[in-house]
Design goal:
By secondary structure, the chain is α+β, with helices and mostly antiparallel strands. It contains 11 helices and 11 strands. The strands form 3 sheets. It has a 5-stranded antiparallel sheet with strand order 3-10-5-8-11, with helices on one face. A 4-stranded antiparallel sheet has the order 4-9-6-7. The relative contact order is 0.13.
Length: 332
């Protein structure tokens, strides 16, 4: 038997009810987006723009394989949460956007680079009209044919889980990474002999540059990391792991061996949000992802997210977004 939420009020002790165990067929879950689908996600067919970097993004997307290079020109201002089956390295040249990757929300600004890893829920919103990003999308297997050993590549792709995967670059590193992206784009566009091998080498150089920037950011960051931040981060990490089954602040406080009051006060001071709001937002993001990309019905999504009825799920969703789930599905 599963314990599920009867409602999602703003108190930390929602009523609970029981429901029988029910299994949703695995095929019904939302798939992770491949590179083709991710390109469509970033772009708007209603706002086609002349491509000035990377591939002709409005050409055929039938088979991009395990690598693509593009910019966000002609893209949308926001998008629903997604999960991908590949990595993305994203360099910001101008403008700004709010990005959420896993438990981290950060501002994408000029002279920053960020990494999105496979299987991590992520989304963006509030993109400025002048936002310009260079993006490299690639599967892990794409780098397997490089001369660098597998463990070294894995280490380059493994970011510190205690720090947002976004790094501010000094002028030299930004210039080097921008030039590196443009060399990859040029090789990709020319398609001459050995171009993929050359691209792999250039991408490894970009990963080294990003990791060097990561080390510099972490040295500065750890000096200012206090107990309140550490507690809040640990809470967010737990929410990412347990949100499907744990929906009250008390449950997380018990795991962390602290009082719910102390957890709530610490999270509020650190983030400006209540701990319960963070739990609810994670549930909401999963709901948006499933509504946008799965073949599950609203009733099946409600069941999967462990609401006791579809109507309770709909009330929660409308409270958070202002839309019924069926109307949200029609807008994405």
């Amino acid at each position: 038997m599963l314990w599920v939420l009867f409602n999602f009020g703003l108190n930390s002790h929602p009523y609970l009810t029981r429901m029988p165990d029910t299994t949703i067929p695995p095929a019904a879950f939302a798939p992770m987006l491949d590179i083709n689908s991710t390109i469509r996600y970033y772009l708007s067919q209603k706002n086609k723009a002349q491509q000035t970097f990377g591939m002709n993004k409005y050409a055929s997307l039938d088979d991009m394989g395990d690598f693509a290079v593009l910019s966000n020109e002609g893209g949308t201002r926001s998008g629903p949460p997604i999960k991908t089956d590949h990595y993305a390295i994203i360099l910001c040249l101008r403008g700004s956007s709010t990005k959420t990757v896993g438990q981290f929300t950060f501002e994408v600004q000029p002279q920053t680079v960020h990494l999105v890893s496979p299987g991590i829920i992520n989304s963006y919103e509030n993109s400025s009209d002048d936002l310009l990003l260079y993006m490299l999308l690639f599967k892990r297997e794409f780098l397997d044919e490089s001369f660098i050993s597998g463990p070294v590549v894995e280490n380059l792709l493994q970011m510190n889980p205690d720090y947002p995967p976004m790094y501010t670059l000094d002028n030299y590193t930004f210039g080097a990474m921008k030039a590196g992206f443009e060399k990859v784009s040029e090789e990709f566009d020319r398609g001459k002999a050995f171009h993929l091998n050359i691209i792999r080498l250039q991408m490894l150089q970009l990963l080294y540059e990003m990791n060097r920037a990561c080390e510099a950011c972490l040295l500065s960051f750890t000096k200012h990391m206090n107990r309140q931040y550490q507690l809040t981060h640990a809470f967010k990490m737990l929410v990412e792991e347990e949100f499907m089954t744990k929906r009250t602040v008390n449950e997380y406080a018990d795991i962390m061996n602290i009082s719910a009051k102390h957890l709530s006060e610490s999270v509020k001071k650190e983030t400006g949000e209540s701990a319960l709001e963070i739990i609810h937002r994670r549930v909401l993001r999963e709901a948006q992802y499933l509504l946008a990309y799965s073949t599950m019905s609203i009733k099946e999504i409600a069941l999967h997210l462990q609401f006791d009825t579809a109507s309770h799920f709909s009330r929660f969703f409308k409270q958070k977004t202002g839309l019924k789930p069926s109307l949200y599905t029609a807008t994405v």
